[in-house]
Amino acid sequence: MYIITDQERADFQKLTTAEQCDKFVEDFWERRNATPGSPENTFKQEHYRRSATRTSTLRATYPVGRRIAAEFISSAARRMSLNSIPAMP
């Protein structure tokens, strides 16, 4: 499930530097922050929690789950700069 809008995706694809991408990702999550300006973004935390749950469920449920999960993560990494997204706790 993608939470990025078509317009945001188009805007992101126009960026040319790592700094611009990092700023975009920061602003992307801030726009979704239930408490703007708060250092704790519960929307972002919940998104990553659900993503981790989906990935582990996929791996445990399907024999080819690991391959599918790896392909999904690889595909997502190509679309977004994951270097600026902190690791999940």
The parts where pLDDT drops under 50 for at least 5 residues are: none
Mean pLDDT: 78
User: What is the helical fraction, as a range of percent?
Assistant: 55-70%
Total of DSSP H or I helical runs spanning 4+ residues: 4
- DSSP summary, beta strand count: 0
How much of the polypeptide forms β-strand, as a percent range? under 5%
- Output the radius of gyration: 14 Å
The helix/strand series, from N terminus to C terminus, equals HHHH
Distance between the termini: 21 Å
The biggest sheet amounts to: none
Q: Which structural category fits the helices and strands?
A: mainly alpha
What is the general shape?
Answer: flat
Write the layout of secondary structure elements.
Elements (H helix, E strand, L loop, with lengths): L5 H8 L4 H14 L10 H20 L3 H15 L10
Helix pairs in contact: 3-4
Question: Features of this protein?
Answer:
flat; mainly alpha; 4 helices; 89 residues
Structural account:
This protein is mainly α. It has a domain at 42-81. The protein has four helices and no strands. It has helices spanning 6-13, 18-31, 42-61, 65-79.
In short:
With 89 residues, the chain is mainly α. It has a domain at 42-81. 64% of the residues lie in helices and 0% in strands.
